[in-house]
Amino acid sequence: MNIRLLVGTVGAVAVMAGGAQAAQLITNGGFETGTFAGWTPNVEAGSGGNLYIAANNGGPSPQSGFPTQFNPAGGNFYAITDQGGAGSYSLTQSFTLASASKVTVSFQMFANDQAGVIFDNGRDYNTIPNQNAEADILVGGADPFTNAPADIVSVLYGPGADNLAGNPNPWTSYSSTLNLAAGAYQIRFAETDNQFFFQMGVDNVSVTTAGVPEPAAWAMMLVGFGGLGALARRRRTAVAA
Question: b vs e for 116-148, b when ≥16 Cβ sit within 10 Å of the residue's Cβ?
Answer without folding.
Answer: eebbebbbebeeeebbbbbbbbbeeebebbbbe
